[in-house]
Write a structure and sequence with these properties.
Blueprint (H helix, E strand, L loop, with lengths): L5 H10 L1 H4 L1 E2 L8 H20 L7 H13 L6 H12 L11 H19 L4 H4 L5 H5 L2 E2 L1 H33 L14 E9 L2 E6 L4 E5 L2 E4 L17 E12 L2 E11 L5 E10 L1 E3 L1
Parallel strand pairs: 1-2
Antiparallel strand pairs: 3-4, 3-7, 4-5, 5-10, 6-9, 7-8, 8-9
Helix pairs in contact: 1-9, 3-6, 4-5
């Protein structure tokens, strides 16, 4: 049985709705000026985080500023600090990209649209009390909506915890049959960068060149799923992110299943299953 489904991920996001929303009296009724205000507030934070990524920082200018600050420091670890900064920022001749303002706004819009889509699945009795779902997706709700969300989200969290416990128990049981010790949950929240077939085995490649080899394997689900290569040196490259992983025993074989979130350049997401069966799994 597959536990970490697309519906599970939606339920997980819904379960966080109460924690994400701040109470505001202005959210009690639809108000375009309030929407623009909170939109600009959230976008400013998003813009700051996006524009300060390493891709847009000149390593030479960065190290000049580091040296200026270290000159004033009396710390005996100045050289270690400088070396850490040099490693962090990369080689002085690496490519520096120009920040794209329009793309940044498009990416923010896509992240907002995803939340609006998720929150549109709230029960109708809660939706009836949300004056503007755009404002709600941006993190503001009336006191009445917050009151309705508390028991609803608490119940969802119980469902989430129960599902996770069942999935973890079955995964641990299946892992005990592997010849080599492998912790499957290590491969969650990590980028999937490639799939290869070799001599009847399937090799799953992750970021940092981590690999899982499924012996005598076949892909039972997701064979045509797009897998984005590792282009982390380029800004806003499409990526395939593992959201969740689980392992089961099916008819004497191992069944490894991933929930994959594919994100494009514009931050638009779509979800896929990747399920592979085989006789053993090694790293």
């Amino acid at each position: 049985m597959k536990y970490f489904t697309k519906e599970f991920y939606t339920t997980f996001l819904l379960s966080e709705a109460n924690e994400r929303a701040k109470t505001s009296k202005r959210a009690e009724q639809k108000d375009e000026s309030f929407y623009r205000e909170v939109y600009n507030e959230r976008y400013a934070t998003f813009h700051h985080n996006e524009s300060h990524c390493d891709w847009y920082i000149d390593p030479v200018e960065f190290m000049k500023k580091v040296d200026e600050r270290l000159k004033k420091s009396k710390s005996k670890y100045k050289e270690l600090c400088r070396e850490a900064c040099r490693i962090y920022i990369g080689e002085p001749d690496r490519k520096v990209y120009t920040f794209d303002e329009k793309l940044c706004e498009r990416r923010f819009e896509e992240s907002l649209n995803l939340l609006i889509s998720v929150y549109s699945k709230l029960p109708q009795y809660i939706l009836n009390e949300i004056a503007d779902i755009r404002v709600f997706a941006l993190g503001y709700a009336s006191a009445k909506v917050k009151k309705l969300l508390r028991p609803y989200c608490a119940e969802l969290r119980k469902t989430i915890d129960d599902t996770i416990n069942k999935a973890n128990a079955e995964t641990a049981e299946a892992e005990s049959y592997l010849k080599d010790k492998i912790e499957i949950d290590y491969y969650e929240n990590i980028a999937l960068t490639g799939l290869e077939e070799k001599d009847g085995d399937i090799i799953i490649i992750f970021e940092e060149d981590c690999r899982l080899i499924i012996k005598n394997a076949n892909i039972t689900e997701g064979k045509d799923m797009p897998v984005h290569p590792d282009n982390s040196d380029e800004p806003n490259s499409p990526l395939s992110m593992v959201i969740a992983a689980e392992l089961h025993r099916v008819d004497g074989k191992f069944e490894l299943s991933f929930l994959i979130k594919n994100v494009d350049t514009y931050n638009k997401s779509d979800f896929h299953y990747l399920t592979i069966q085989g006789t053993d799994i090694t790293e």
